Every structure is written in structure tokens, then in C-alpha cells.
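Researcher: Let's do a round of design. I'm pasting the C-alpha cells now; please hold your answer until I've finished.
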């Protein structure tokens, strides 16, 4: 194996590991902060809203990165154009998803008598969290470019900055 390729792979692997570590630590801190502030029921409501919204992250992803990188791997000029198109597609798709999430949130069930389902605070949280789909789409699109360049340390910087802002 070429020494330079080995160095690139090692650096990218380490960057991905540190990115996952930063994300995991921030998730733990956020969990502690939310649980202390809102209590168990409030944390449960937060998880309900967040889990509902993150289901739509998959729609925003849709496996586009792998398809773009596989299709245009050999032609640098085409891949930059394809990645720009991918970014545009994801922006439009994320706006559609945000509108869908806001609309769907109004129709989610809630039983006032048993306090089960999606109470008004959870629905408001879904509306607020819906906008994270846009930022996730941007992250996914830029990450595909970093993946193409084999420069995951840029993704690490974005992940660490995102984790700090989220906390």
C-alpha cells in the first residue's frame, strides 16, 4: 500500500472517530441538561418530537451521496457540477420536508384525558425541530464533497462546531 494513501486513510478514520466522539459527548451533555431542566416527562416529550423529526432525515439523505460519488468518481469537472446539483436538490427537498412536518404536526393525535400522544408542546417542538432538516441536508451535501476529496477533517470541524452550538 502506498504510504501516502495509508496516511490519508488513517487521518480520515481518526477524524471520523473524533467526530463520532464529539457528537456522542454532546448528546450525553444535552440529555443531562434537558433531563435536569424538564424532568423525565419533559425529556420524554423532547425525545418524542426529536425522534419524529429525525425520521425525515432519511428522506433528506435518500442515499444521494453514494450515488453521486459512484457515478462521477472519474471526472472531477462533472462531480463538482453534480455536487452543486445535489446541494440544490437537497435544499428544495428539505424545504418540502419542513412544510410536510409542520403540516403533519397539526394532525398528530393527542388525548387530553389520558395525556397520551402529541401534546401541544410536542407539536410546537416538532415545528421548531423541523428546521434542523435543512441543516442536516447541508451537512450531508458538504460531507459528500469532503468524502470525495478524502478530507474528513473538515467534516470533523463541522461536527465539533455543530456539537458546541447544539449544547
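Researcher: That's everything. Go ahead.
Model: Designed sequence:
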Amino acid at each position: 500500500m502506498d504510504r501516502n494513501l495509508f496516511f490519508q486513510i488513517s487521518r480520515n478514520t481518526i477524524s471520523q472517530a473524533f467526530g463520532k466522539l464529539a457528537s456522542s459527548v454532546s448528546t450525553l451533555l444535552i440529555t443531562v441538561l434537558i433531563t435536569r431542566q424538564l424532568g423525565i416527562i419533559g425529556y420524554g416529550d423532547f425525545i418524542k418530537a426529536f425522534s419524529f423529526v429525525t425520521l425525515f432525515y432519511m428522506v433528506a439523505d435518500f442515499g444521494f451521496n453514494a450515488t453521486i460519488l459512484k457515478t462521477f468518481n472519474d471526472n472531477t469537472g462533472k462531480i463538482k457540477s453534480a455536487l452543486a446539483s445535489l446541494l440544490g436538490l437537497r435544499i428544495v427537498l428539505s424545504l418540502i420536508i419542513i412544510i410536510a412536518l409542520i403540516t403533519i404536526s397539526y394532525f398528530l393525535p393527542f388525548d387530553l384525558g389520558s395525556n397520551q400522544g402529541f401534546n401541544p408542546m410536542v407539536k410546537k417542538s416538532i415545528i421548531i425541530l423541523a428546521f434542523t432538516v435543512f441543516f442536516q441536508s447541508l451537512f450531508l451535501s458538504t460531507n459528500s464533497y469532503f468524502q470525495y476529496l478524502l478530507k474528513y477533517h473538515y467534516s470533523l470541524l463541522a461536527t465539533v462546531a455543530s456539537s458546541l452550538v447544539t449544547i
